[in-house]
Amino acid sequence: MPRRLLIALLSLILTAPALLAQPPQQNEYVPIDQLPPQEAMPAAPLLIGAYIVVWLGLMGYLFWIWRRIARVEADMQALQRRTTGSPR
Amino acid sequence: MRKAFIPLLVVATAMFAYAPIFIANAPYESTMLLIQKVMYFHAPSGMVMLISGVISGVASALFLFRKSRAADHVALAAAELTAVYGVIVLLSGPLWARKAWGVWWVWDARLTMAFVGWLIALAYLVVRKYGGPGSEKLAAGLALFGAANVPFIYLSVNIWRTIHPQTTVAPTLPAGMREPFWFCVAAFFLLYSLLMTTRVRLERQRATLDDLYLAAED
Amino acid sequence: MNVFFNIAFLVFKKDFTIELKSREIVYTTLLFALSCILIFSLTFVVEGQPLAEAAAGIVWIAIAFSGTLALGRTFERERYSETLRALLIAPAPRAAIYVGKLLGMVALLAAAEVLLVPLVAVLFQANLLGQLPLLAPLLLLGTIGFAGVGTLFAAMLVRARTRDVLLPILLYPITVPVMIAGVRGTSALLQDPAEPALAIMWIGILASFDVVFVTLALWTFEPLMTE
Questions:
Q1: How far apart are CA B139 and CA B60, in angstroms?
Q2: Each residue of C97-135: pLDDT tens digit?
Q3: Beta bridge partners of C194
Q4: Among residues of chain B, what percentage have pLDDT more than 70?
Q5: Taking CA C27 as the corner, what is the angle to CA C25 and CA C32, rounded to the nearest 5 degrees?
Q6: If I label C111, which of A38, A49, C137, C217 is the partner at 20 to 30 A Cα–Cα?
Q7: β-pair partners for B29
Q8: Optimal mutation site among B108, B127, B153, B163, interface C, most CBs of chain C within 10 A
Q9: β-pairing, C49-50 with C45-46?
Q10: What are phi and psi of B146, to 5 degrees?
Q11: What is the DSSP letter of B173?
């Protein structure tokens, strides 16, 4: 759990250098054909980045749950062996 | 439900595998061109996050007032999924916004709500983990208050931001874009229900394990 | 109904009397509020002049921070002398205990605001005192909203290990509407031609927030505080 939190926070913090590297920003909506040329970033890396985020997020979470289930079931079997193994 | 799990998982995986092809064939949006395609994953994630938050709030209320342990498991699973989908929404959104609006972030109603809702989900998880004894009740109270807060946050941020220019996030969809969009919505919701059932099952097993440990100590 | 208010008032009187004797929480809260203002004054000064627009935010941030600490300290005192358990065992409706604690917290924060508002007005050259007829209800309703949620969470967190840092983590997202309404209302009052209509709208939002959340807190205090 704290690992998960750490990863989420790290992902947000990692966008900070990208933020700092940008030219002064505006707060209003400017249609894309009116933006100055240096603002016109290539869309493809951003799009691919977004899709990677989604895929990694979902797959990572699924994997993490799967590992925890395996751990809980191992614990259960160990406990079962302990209780049936020791005579009472 | 158990029997249907694997086939549904296969269906969900197939849907996700096919989605990029479907999306790539969708027509370009006129002003935003390529980057608008983020919307096909970003918007369904937002929907799922919202629904998950509501489920967590309702389950928390059931846990507090009906003392239902199953409701507690559902509340925890839903809160965790709200946090996960929240990360997806909050990371994919700025990537879209940077290209479409020129800024990474604006404090408009929807974004602020998403951010605060995500913080509440994280706070829920932190309380469950580090709150000590009785933290389930405490977290449930938090989820309930968070759910009750949604209309207020929306109202206050919306009024606050009408002083500044608005940016529309979800235009009405033309015909060519509708199919991939709803396809992705279906895929995301299917995956969400699969993740929820898995997570609730995990939680129930952990609770059983704890009970067994306690019983074994006697 | 009478019993309810009697008990609430008794709890409030107990806290008030204790505080009158030792004055520990009052002094520390006021001093903390002052230190907050000091740090903000240093940060929000541009070329020797304080930023006028910062005053509204600073007042509310100082209230939020001092309130969080005061909440922690109040319940820490209860936990230390184990009086919380005694309160809960007492044959009194638990909601009345909550209301009593809430009254005490609002009184404490009101005392802090009496100090804070003139100070910010002076340091940031903001006409806060001139707008008092509308500023006072704004501050009062905002304080009730903040303390309403905070008292519930602080009471619940008494037994938690990491209660000091958990309280802000829980409290700040939930009180976002209070902060937004408070700051927006105050800055509407501080505009050059003041906008009382806008401030009144924010006061209305704060009032409905207070009603909803204090009711919710009264409703959930019982199930949340039972072991």
A1: 8
A2: 899 999 999 999 999 999 889 988 888 888 888 888 889
A3: none
A4: 87
A5: 90
A6: C217
A7: B33
A8: B127
A9: antiparallel
A10: -60, -45
A11: P
Nearest to B41 among A2, A54, A76 (CB): A54
How far apart CA B108 and CA B104 sit, in angstroms, is 12
What is the residue whose two structure tokens read 């309810």? Answer: C4
Distance CA B74, CA B56 (A): 7
Q: For residue B107, give how far its alpha carbon lies from the nearest alpha carbon of chain C (Å).
A: 12
Q: Which two three-digit tokens encode residue C225? A: 């505080």
Domain spans in chain B, listed from the N-terminal domain onward: 36-162+171-217
User: CA C40: distance to chain centroid?
Assistant: 19
User: Alpha helix (H) ranges present in A15-42?
Assistant: 16-20
Give, in degrees to the nearest 5, the angle at Cα C172 between A18 and B110.
Answer: 55
Establish if B91 touches chain A: CB-CB under 8 angstroms.
Answer: yes
At B30, list the tokens.
């006129």
DSSP character for A23?
P
Other beta carbons within 10 angstroms of residue A11's beta carbon come to: 15
Q: Does the global pTM surpass 0.90?
A: no
Confidence check: pLDDT of A38 > 70: no
Q: What angle do CA B74, B78, B79 make, to 5 degrees?
A: 120
Tell me B171's DSSP state.
Answer: P
On the CB side of C210, CA atoms within 13 Å amount to: 21
Which residue has 């204790």 as its token pair? C18
Q: What tokens were used for C107?
A: 């009184």
How far apart CA B100 and CA A32 sit, in angstroms, is 7
Cβ burial, residue C152 (10 Å; 0-12/13-18/19+): buried
| Contact (Cβ atoms closer than 8 angstroms) between residue B99 and residue A20 | no
Q: Give how far Cα B197 sits from Cα of A62, A74, B9, C175, Å.
A: 12, 20, 12, 32
**Largest Cα–Cα distance of chain B, in whole Å?**
70
Chain A contact partners (≥3 CB pairs within 8 A): B
Q: Which residues pair with B33 in a beta bridge?
A: B29
This model of the complex carries an ipTM of: 0.85
Are A50 and B165 inside 8 Å of each other by CB?
A: no
- Does A47 contact chain B (CB < 8 Å)? yes
Check residue B72 and give its pLDDT: 92
Per the CB < 8 A criterion, the answer to whether C189 and C135 are in contact is yes
Partner residue opposite C177 with nearest CB, options B127, B142, B156: B156
Residue B130: which residues within 8 A CB-CB, separation 6 or more?
A: C160, C161, C162, C166
Judged by CB atoms closer than 8 Å, whether chains meet at A54 and B45 is answered as yes
DSSP bridge pairs for C50: C45
Contact yes or no for B147/B54 (Cβ under 8 A): yes
| C67 neighbors C109 (Cβ within 8 angstroms) | yes
Q: What angle (nearest 5°) sits at the alpha carbon of residue B188, between those of residues A60 and B110?
A: 95
Task: Dihedral sign for Cα B2, B8, B9, B10, please.
Answer: positive
Angle between helical axes of B2-25 and B175-217 (0-180°, round to 10)? 150
